[in-house]
# Entry
Amino acid sequence: MSTARVHIESVGGYNGDARCFELDPPFVDPDTAQEIQYVVVDVIKAYRGHSFSQAIVFAANDKGRPLGPSMRAIADYSHPWQATHWPVLTLLGYAVAG
# Structure
């Protein structure tokens, strides 16, 4: 079973509540064929009913910093009330461990 384990509980520099996860086995980005061992899931709260909350996955290094020259999202999802970290990881085929 593919698992995502919290590597860093809180990562600064993102727009919302960002956590870094270690993926086992690494995720293979279908667009670049790059193996990604760490991702940051950034959960952004809804803004006073004007937008949905979002959870966005970015490729990261082991310090939680973005990989590559851009911050292209690997996956994302929106929720009308409260997005959380784990559902977007299940979209990538990972169960959150621990």
